[in-house]
Amino acid sequence: MIEIKxxxxxxxxxxVQLLRWNKKTGDYVERDQVIAELExxxxxxxxxxxxxxxxxxxxxxxxxxxxxxxxxxIDETAKAPQATIEITAPKPPVVTTxxxxxxxxxxxxxxxxxxxxxxxxxxSALLAEKKVDPSQVKPTGPQGKIVKDDVxxxxxQPGKLPFxxxxxxxxxxxxxxxxxxxxxxxxxxxxxxNGTAMLTTFNEVDMSAILAVRAxxxxxxxxxxxxxxxxxxxxxxxxSVALREWPSVNASIDADxxxxxxxxxxxxxxxxxxxxxxxxxxxVESMSMADVEKKVAELAVKARDSKLTAEELTGxxxxxxxxxxxGSLMSTPIINAPQSxxxxxxxxxxxxxxxxxxxxxxxxxxxxxxxxxxxIDGRESVGFLVRVKELLENPAQLLIxxxxxxxxxxx
Length: 411
Known about the structure:
Structural class: alpha+beta
Radius of gyration: 28 Å
CATH topology of the largest domain: Chloramphenicol Acetyltransferase
Largest sheet: 7 strands, mixed
CATH superfamily of the largest domain: Chloramphenicol acetyltransferase-like domain
Shape: globular
């Protein structure tokens, strides 16, 4: 009998939570097959079967477990089940139907009657994704089908039924235990708020130049590099240049000393179903635009699938967070301690601006820099933000970090 125990995942981690079992008691598992997922205060990681055999689970999902505690056992003497081959006839074309229940009229039978409701494939996918009860949707399509707009209308008025069927919604409550990740997020945010002299300064940037570059080169960029040209590469490269010029923004406090970094390890805040994570890109100052876009895409997929390692979640010197993807127009982001600053991106919105005495409409974005006033003074914070703005409004400067004309004239 093989014992599967909670592995040691880091010196500072003494406890983990069992997120889920990928296999259940009685299942035959192959060697190195993933059988469970654990979550520490820093990351989610997988547990693999050390031998092939029949699994017996010991711990339950949601349990808090110490390092070395028994998770499961595997009977390696058990024989693998024989593979079976299924031969199936071709299936007829699929007609999407949805089963809903409706109360029967008074009769001796008390069983609910089954009502067959049809929906278009797109509407069916939307119903499943948003977990909408089809009986709560009023169909308007041909032959009484539910169409996409019917589902969207139901989502716009959650809890409301068609007028003739309106009833009171259930007044239910539920409790869920905080995950280790959520507890860590809460703890770190409170520590950052209470343990730093945090201040936020704002500016706005005209995104016209970057939008023009993307429109002109996005297809060629994807053809050559195999990845899309987004906004994050422009912002991370602009920050890496500005961090070199304003080193206190890239510093941190270590006891009674200030630790300066001559490299830019930039964290990118990513929202996941279990909470906010901040994977780190190392040495952004030496990365190309394509390198950044590929790394951002890789980290985003890992964050979504809970595959980020502890190393990828530690050691950043500066952070960027993009509330604009959720529609945020302005916010004051909280520092990711022990870092001294964080840049907040926001929604691009067309606004009237004045240029040479004329009112023109430009795609504008508010930028917010939250910083630790113990390290960074107003001059440094404003200077850094103005430099980021300048680089974004003149993307050619990102190539060498300077104004090409001034470089040519050596001024």
